[in-house]
Amino acid sequence: MLIKTTTGIPSSEITPQEKFLSRRGFLAGAAAVAGAGVIAPQGLWGATKLQTTPGKFSLSETPTPLKKAISYNNFYEYGVDKGDPAANAHRLKPRPWTVQVEGQIQKPLTFDIDTIMNYRPLEDRVYRFRCVEAWSMVIPWVGYSFSEFVKACNPLPSAKYIQFISLADRKQMDLPDSAGIYWPYSEGLRMDEAMHPLTLLTFGSYGQTLENQQGAPIRIIIPWKYGFKSAKSIVKIRFLDKQPHTSWNDLAPNEYGFYANVNPQHNHPRWSQASERKIDASLFPKTVPTLSFNGYGSEVAGLYNGMDLHKNY
Ligand SMILES: Nc1nc2c(c(=O)[nH]1)N[C@H]1C(S)=C(S)[C@@H](COP(=O)(O)O)O[C@H]1N2
Ligand SMILES: [Mo]
């Protein structure tokens, strides 16, 4: 059985939870698409082709070339330069992989990565992706709405926030002190942000599994927020009653807020956020104006009614 509890609880005690998840369609969903998710190893960059359907919310823009998307990355566990993740993330082992879920839920859960990946049909979602460092890409991510997964975990009403925790394993990662981050990398969302249908539980891009440097085998993508909110290589998801600490908040609270909505009017203390270098197929990236909420305002602005987004940056 792919669903285990975290603390070696005997399998007899797991049964009610399994039945519960089955009733909710979690196991049924897994069975219905079993084998549909993963096809055959491609041998290219270690990625595996995924079977996908065209998803909601896709931009009609031409995606950034795959090669650029996987050679210019932020993944501080492997070094602070943009080329470091592509050079060093081969050390990451994306299988076997489990994701623990804990906190304000009925009972802690541990899921195998393939159970999560096969739970819902995988969609292609071409999203704009904007880094706080003022560059952007257009990436065809592969995944399904994170809200589907949340519902399957059955959080308690006291769950108001979600925290994502990335792997921090010295056997597989460098975890350099120079990054300044207190490992493990962690990020968080308010529950309504997490439940928004744009928030994508992500397993792939460009029709194939994530490259290690993109945060294989599972990451989150929140397209209206700066890229640092989108935690990579997630091993733990916590439902919380209070706003969680996040890596960048802890490191530089004057530079990185909890909300981190893309806001061209609110500058980073060291640079403007009014424009971005658009990384596309051209040799020299064009600079284009940045859109509020990264262009997703009509979908998400309502989540922040009555909030001062200069204070809550
Ligand atoms: N675990 C982890 N997740 C992370 C980061 C990181 O250093 N470690 N960097 C963040 C930042 S700053 C950005 S811009 C995006 C980069 O994603 P990409 O390399 O796929 O473009 O990942 C985010 N998620
Ligand atoms: Mo970033």
Automatic annotation (TrEMBL):
The keyword Ribonucleoprotein does not apply. Predicted to be exported by the Tat system. The position of the signal peptide cleavage has not been experimentally proven. Its EC number is 1.8.5.-. Gene3D superfamilies: Oxidoreductase, molybdopterin-binding domain (3.90.420.10). Binds 1 Mo-molybdopterin (Mo-MPT) cofactor per subunit. Mo-molybdopterin binds at N73, Y76, E77, C131, S166, R219, S230, A231, K232. InterPro entries: MsrP, OxRdtase_Mopterin-bd_dom, OxRdtase_Mopterin-bd_sf, TAT_signal, TAT_signal_bac_arc. HAMAP family: MsrP. This is Protein-methionine-sulfoxide reductase catalytic subunit MsrP. It comes from Terriglobus albidus.
